[in-house]
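Record type: ASSEMBLY
Status: queued
Input:
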Amino acid sequence: MSLDQPLQSAEGLELGTTPEDAAGLGSGRRPSFIRQAVITQPQAIVGLAVLGFFVLVALVGPALLSQDPKTKVGPVFGHPSAEWPLGLDGGGANMIPLLIAGARVSLEVGFLAALVAMFIGGSVGLASGFFGGRIDTVLMRFTDYILVIPDIPLMVMAAALFGRSLRNIIIIIGIIYWTSTARLIRAQVLSVRERVYVKRSRSLGAGNNRLIFKHILPQVAPLLIANMVLMVALAIFAETFIAFLGLGDPSAISWGKLIENAFTDHAVLNDAWWAILWPGVCVTLVILACTMVGQSMEDALNPRLRVGHLSVNRFRVRVLPRKPPKP
Amino acid sequence: MIKRVLFALVTVWVAITLNFLLFRTLPGNAVSALYVEDLAHGNLGNSLTTEGPVWDEIKPALKNTLPMIMLGTGFSIIFGILAGVIASWRRGTWVDRGNMWVSLAFYSMPPQWLGLMLFFFVATAVGLPQSGLSSPDLGVLSEPSFAAYWSDRLQHMILPALTLGLVLYGDYTLIVRSAMLETLGEDYVLTARAKGLSNWSIVWKHGLRNALLPIVTLVALSLGFIIGGTFTIEYVFSYPGVGYETVQAIDRRDYPVLQGIFLLLTMSVILFNLIADLLYFKLDPRVTS
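Status: finished
Output:
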């Protein structure tokens, strides 16, 4: 980490832990804390770069394609060559435009489904944690039941019954993955709710809406964003799953759909590994990037994970967190 | 303890209701209102394609799936714990970093894709059978010996189990590592060090044994993921287990079979969660509720 800003990062470290500090700083400081935490971790930079690349491809790429990506340009499962560096798929279409078109659909599903999950999970968690009492009991009971029911089989069943359109798949993934978010947010809200500055504004006459949206939501937002980044990965993963079982949208080209198409077109018999390898590499890279970014954000929010008493070097008993403690 | 069992029972009830409602929305009301009564008699309904009882469809598939899942999960638990403990012990070193990257990569791979990659690049190179449950020519001329039969079965099991194992390995390593990091930050580890205990004893006796608590819960929770993974993995390797059966049922729109499988999987996940909860009491005497 950079040594020229130790003071600010020390503040940042304390921000999530003591209510007084959190109260003293405006919500405007929060984003800079997240940014700092992410920027000081090399894995987060790599993740952001990869994610940025794919987002750019998804946004700009399809507009640059001169023709329908499914157009037949050569033999079925044509080998990778100078003309087609990544080979051709089972319909004789070039893999590169297919992958570009797939980026848009896969990322769209990932972000929108994560948004749905965030919205439901965030609302349930906020309501549950803030209001407490009977609302909390009912909502958390319900969440617990849904949490135990295995998500992938439930998702597959729901997709088998209602799927086969992109919109339905997004909604199904979002509706199934909100539970962990709700629990996480509730726990955080419970602690924020008891902080002095919240009590202070309540006694000054702030209403529930103001408390939730002005005072609590900004404190919970970093966690929500970190969780959302992880959720995008989960949703993209889920989409490849649904698509592979033949439950995807038949007209949309997603990475998962490309893997499924190649598999059902007997890529295996044709030994056409390239038709399956590249879509999978794209999925893996995006998921890896999301995980790295999301995790380093979570690490920044929970500095305890970096402390351990069993030292790697024999003469140091305790490894301190990399950020210097408060002076 | 009674509370936990009660919770599991209510969850089963929620799952049955969900199962009922989901399929009830189908056009033509594929599910009768007597569903719950039938279930109480252990009747899952009849398959739409074979017209036989659903249970007869699922049972052989389950017999094929279980050994495969156990092989894969066993592999990942053993190697996941080993790698996770070593990574947390040597945290911040290249061992930790390399291990992190490998597990994160496996964790990020869609299981069906990893399976297909093993299919393309490993199966032929090593000479493992790529699909099915056993070789079609085995036992054609004569009854195969016990050893020959099982070695053949095992060979067919290796690739699907390895796929499952590798995906889970990534997951478990990361879980074990972070659970261990939490534990190694506890004061009793500092005390153990101050007493001059060896690293070995600190890591395995003080660290891992306490880190086992969250690990047990998370492994039990990952059962849903294991089952989901088998859907696509068995499909890739044409391994006739529950996952393969599910894909077939989806293709044929055989809703009673789907419904039966979903119920079975849900119940087993709930059961394993209950077992994990009860195990918690045994593992941690501090928990008493």
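Annotation: The mean pLDDT of chain A is 74.
Annotation: The domain at 31-65+97-308 of chain A is CATH 1.10.3720.10 (MetI-like fold).
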